[in-house]
Design goal:
mainly alpha, 14 helices, elongated
């Protein structure tokens, strides 16, 4: 219910923002909702300032913008595994896409003016999400709160408005989609067999479910940014692009975002150690089956995407370059940032 209400509220804000664009644009003698047509117009700065918050916050709710992120952990924990994989892997990325493709692309003057606010909220989401994850005992809540932190990197890259940071933000959308879907898949496999997601009730699963445990550890290592996996490539690209913005606020936000990696490593390694390593809890999980062929196939496919981005990232950055260049060429003069 919280998920439905929060996303409905976000959609209402987006709708108000789109109506504002519609009634303040005229293309061919009539109002337009054509993205390309609106992009070619020079909307007055006052119009941009007025409607940018509606669009950015509306789309931002979909991608866990602080403080409108509270639907994420409750929604994920209540959803079945497939729904959690879709919600985190695909649906939440639509919010980041809307922030970039609609709000920033169409309203670049307002994007630059609101940039400090976006960066502050994104940094809070990164730090808060990481520390909140440390307090969780449920595996789904751990992954859900970590998604709040990781989606903060997306918003941080968009808010920095540099070519490298925006490239990193889009790479983070793809990387996080693969990683968190794999993580939720592993958690779902564990829950189907043990009927619990509480860390304190698990332990020694590597001896019982070697493949599922390997997938769990692999997804966790990607989440904490291990070099060679997609999480490292996307996050370091965001950091490099963020450092290009000069100014105390931008440098401080970048440093705090980098520092969150330490907290991420703590909760990932702790959850992995308590869940996967050690003796089997009370012997109650002995005899449980490992992954089936279709579960193995899903794990291998998602893992292959993570490795492909982590080991050879340039094919993805080259694929994203034309789109990022189009945004920067269109709005670069308004940004005043390279």
């Amino acid at each position: 219910m919280k998920l439905a209400l929060m996303l409905m509220g976000g959609s209402a804000l987006v709708f108000v923002g789109l109506l504002g664009l519609y009634y303040n644009t005229v293309s061919g003698g009539q109002h337009s909702l054509d993205l390309l047509a609106i992009g070619q117009m020079q909307l007055p700065a006052e119009v941009q300032r007025r409607f940018f918050p509606f669009l950015f916050v509306g789309f931002g709710i979909f991608t866990a913008l602080f403080p409108f992120h509270t639907w994420v952990p409750d929604g994920h924990s209540s959803a079945p595994t497939a729904a959690s994989m879709f919600l985190a892997g695909v649906s939440m990325k639509l919010g980041g896409y809307g922030c970039l493709r609609v709000a920033v692309f169409l309203l670049p003057v307002a994007a630059k003016e609101y940039s400090p606010v976006i960066i502050v909220l994104a940094t809070i989401a990164i730090i808060y999400g990481a520390f909140a994850t440390m307090m969780q005992k449920d595996l789904k809540y751990i992954n859900a709160y970590s998604s709040v932190s990781h989606c903060g990197f997306i918003l941080l890259g968009i808010g920095m408005l540099t070519r490298t940071a925006i490239t990193g933000a889009v790479m983070q959308m793809i990387s996080h989609g693969l990683m968190t879907a794999l993580f939720f898949a592993a958690i779902g496999m564990i829950y189907d067999r043990t009927h619990t997601r509480l860390v304190e009730q698990l332990g020694g699963l590597l001896k019982v479910m070697p493949f599922i445990s390997t997938v769990f550890v692999f997804a966790g290592l990607c989440s904490l940014g291990l070099p060679g996996l997609s999480g490292f490539v996307s996050e370091i690209t965001v950091f490099m692009g963020s450092w290009q913005r000069t100014g105390e606020l931008y440098r401080l936000a970048t440093i705090l975002a980098c520092a969150s990696i330490v907290v991420t490593a703590v909760y990932i390694l702790r959850a992995t150690g308590q869940t996967i390593m050690g003796p089997v809890k009370a012997g109650s999980y002995n005899g449980l089956g490992d992954a089936t062929w279709n579960e193995r196939l899903a794990g291998v496919l998602l893992g292959a995407g993570i490795v492909a981005i982590g080991v050879a990232p340039f094919w993805l950055s080259d694929l994203l370059a034309p789109g990022v260049k189009a945004i920067m060429d269109h709005a670069g003069n308004a940004f005043g940032i390279k």
